[in-house]
Amino acid sequence: MDIRFKNTEDYIKSFAESKLVQYFLESYETVRSRGFGGSSQVRSSGAGGESLNVKVENNGLDINLYGNSYLEAVDEGTAPFSPPPEAIINWLQTKPVTLKDFKTGRELDRTPSNLRSVAYKIGEAISLRGIAPTNYIKEVVERGFDEILNGITPSLKQDVKEKLDTILTKVGYVKKGDNWVLKTK
Fold first, then answer.
1. Does residue 138 sit within a domain?
2. Taking 60 as the threshold, does the pLDDT of residue 38 lie above it?
3. Residue 68: how many CB atoms within 10 A of its CB?
């Protein structure tokens, strides 16, 4: 049965383009527990959020959120691996974090030596435990799904009203006067 529900498609497309990226950015900037005894927002340089693009495809049946490839690993977490120290130093320089001495908890100046030392310790922890998941994409999907379900009814109702004759005909009914009856052989 190939019946397009134009109003429903338009609603989903409008929702995806106007709200989904907004919800993602709100979740992306929310401070949350990160599994290392501390809390921080997912956002670091902002490049991940700026890379986002929503596409509604397959006649409104698919909503796809595209962005930098690392966002999925940040969301789902990773298995243990050994990151290059330079990558962690770059991350520390972009992320608004306070450097602390691991033994004393004392705040450290952001010198090259302290950045290398903290990067080494973070790399060591990642090589033992991986990166903890943030689950921010799941949060966006759940919020978006609930809102779509709550808001789609008027559009879907209008589509069914406009296409009812076609729907009934396609499933085997015929119109007799003002009534629809199941076609028999």
1. yes
2. no
3. 13
134-149 mean pLDDT: 80
The burial class, CB within 10 Å (0-12 / 13-18 / 19+), for 5 is buried
In a domain, 83, yes or no: no
User: What does the angle CA 11 – CA 19 – CA 63 come to, to the nearest 5 degrees?
Assistant: 60
Q: Are 34 and 132 in contact (CB under 8 A)?
A: yes
Those residues with Cβ within 8 angstroms of residue 178's Cβ, 6 or more apart along the chain or in another chain: none
**Do 99 and 108 contact (CB within 8 A), yes or no?**
yes
Please give the tally of structural domains in the chain.
Answer: 1
- Expressed as residue numbers, the domain containing 18 is 6-78+131-182
| Mean pLDDT for the stretch of residues 50-64 | 77
